[in-house]
Structure formats: structure tokens, C-alpha cells
Design brief:
Strand 2 (84-89), helix 7 and strand 3 (106-108) form a beta-alpha-beta unit. Helices cover 36% and strands 18% of the residues. The chain contains eleven helices and eleven strands. The protein has helices at 11-15, 28-31, 41-46, 48-60, 62-65, 70-80, 95-99, 127-132, 173-183, 202-208, 235-252; strands spanning 5-9, 84-89, 106-108, 111-118, 124-126, 145-146, 152-153, 158-162, 186-190, 213-216, 229-231. The chain starts with a strand and ends with a helix. With 253 residues, it is of the alpha/beta class. It is elongated and about 65 Å long. The longest helix has 18 residues, at 235-252.
């Protein structure tokens, strides 16, 4: 029976792929706190100007333009080997999907920029389609025809599936993450300071369940004391190496 590894990723895995973090010393929100309004749900709901700014900022952001790095691809390789039972991520950049990980294992704790939805009728949209039309349609509204209203368009607000400030986490995301991380044979934390809750609570829950924890982060984290193994090397170097070693060990067993 193969080893089941649960993984929690944070901003550190994406900074290695060129995306600046938000809360670090050089983070986007640290240097430009006004830009937190991009993800403020009240502003989005009540101001057309705020919505247009939010959409434009997201389209021009490195988050939208980024491509997965070798660390992301390493986790796709871990899944290919049948060893990845959970990939819970605090990032909303959709890079795990782009790297090849499947929706079966990914839990986007803070949502994802890769998909969007109508806030009135919940119709799904591909964010890439909206971005392609953003120069023509700067404040996207739902085009779904409502049969019970004479095929008039819904016209509800469309927003990305990123969790904005003031919104709840996706339904069931924490429950699934806690269940699978406490049932795993190992928990790896990759590139998170474990300061943001409730995502960070996955670590003490797994520790209480007796799951061995590996924390890979350049700086100290809130739960270093709970880790069986601490790795302070650059993630783009250390994670592919850890994945290769883990797969090789499994195959040799």
C-alpha cells in the first residue's frame, strides 16, 4: 500500500515561480496597503469603479500571468506516483492546476483565480474568457439567459472564485483538508509561515493525530516546534529533491 502524503502550500512555493507574496516584508499589501481593496467584497458589490479596478488589477497582476515552477511540477510528479492524497493551498494563483495536479487532490482554501462565477445565479465562467474581453467589457455581468424570465439575461455580477475579504472560505474546504491531513501518513508544509487561519490549524490537527510533519520554509513558522523535519533550503531546490527521494524510497520498499 502506497504512502499517503498530504501537502499544504503557501506563498513561498509561488514566489519561487516569480509571484510576489502579499504579506511578507516585501509583499504587495505590505508596500501598498491600498491594494487590499482589490479583494474587498463590500467595495466590489457596491462600486462599479472598484469592480473595474479589481478586474484590471487582477488581469495585469503577476498572479494571472505566472506559470508553474519546478516546485509546482514536483508535486504533480508526486501525484503521478500515487502518493499525494491532498494538496491544500492558501494560494489562489491556479498554478497547481496549471502544473498538472488534479481537482481530486487540490483544495483551494482561499479560492482560485482560474474560475469565476455569477454572484446571483452561480453560473460558472472561465476567468480566461473574461480577461480576453476585459478591454471591451470592463465590469462583467452574467449573460446566462433565464428561461423563467423570458430569456432575459441574468445580469448578476461576475467575480473570480478568489475568496475576497469579508467572504467565507469555500464550503467544505477546511473540513476536507482536516480530514485528509489527519488520515495521511505524512504532512508536508511548503512555503507557509502558518500565520493565516483557519488554514494554519491543519498543522496542529495533524500533529495531534500523530502524523509526522515536514515544514519547508526559508523563515521560521508558527508551528516549527511540531515538525519532525525542518527544511530551510530554497523551495525550488529542496522540494523536487524531496519528491525524488520520497518516490525512490517508496519504490524500493
Amino acid at each position: 500500500m502506497s504512502t499517503h502524503i498530504a501537502v499544504l502550500t503557501g506563498a513561498g512555493i509561488s514566489t519561487s515561480a516569480g509571484i510576489p507574496d502579499f504579506r511578507g516584508p516585501d509583499g504587495v499589501w505590505t508596500k501598498h496597503p491600498d491594494q487590499m481593496q482589490v479583494y474587498d467584497i463590500e467595495a466590489f458589490l457596491h462600486s462599479k469603479a472598484a469592480r473595474e479596478y479589481s478586474w484590471r488589477w487582477q488581469k495585469e497582476s503577476p498572479v494571472w500571468k505566472a506559470q508553474p515552477g519546478i516546485a509546482h511540477k514536483a508535486l504533480a510528479k508526486l501525484e503521478e506516483a500515487g502518493m499525494l492524497s491532498l494538496l491544500a493551498t492558501q494560494n489562489f494563483d491556479a498554478l497547481h492546476e496549471k502544473a498538472g495536479n488534479s481537482p481530486d487532490v487540490i483544495v483551494n482554501l482561499h479560492g482560485t483565480i482560474g474560475s469565476s462565477h455569477c454572484m446571483t445565479c452561480a453560473a460558472p465562467y472561465r476567468t480566461s474568457d473574461i480577461m480576453d474581453q476585459l478591454d471591451q467589457v470592463s465590469d462583467p455581468h452574467c449573460r446566462r439567459k433565464l428561461h423563467y424570465q423570458g430569456d432575459l439575461p441574468c445580469n448578476g455580477l461576475i467575480k473570480t472564485d478568489v475568496v475576497y475579504f469579508g467572504e467565507a472560505l469555500p464550503e467544505g474546504a477546511m473540513e476536507k483538508s482536516l480530514r485528509l491531513s489527519t488520515q495521511a501518513d505524512q504532512l508536508w508544509v511548503i512555503g507557509s509561515t502558518l500565520e493565516v487561519f483557519p488554514a494554519a490549524s491543519i498543522v496542529p490537527a495533524a500533529a495531534q493525530a500523530g502524523v509526522p510533519i515536514t515544514i519547508m520554509n526559508m523563515g521560521r513558522t508558527r508551528y516549527d516546534r511540531l515538525a519532525k523535519r525542518l527544511i530551510r533550503e530554497p523551495i525550488q531546490d529542496a522540494l523536487p529533491k524531496l519528491v525524488e527521494e520520497t518516490i525512490a524510497s517508496e519504490q524500493a520498499a
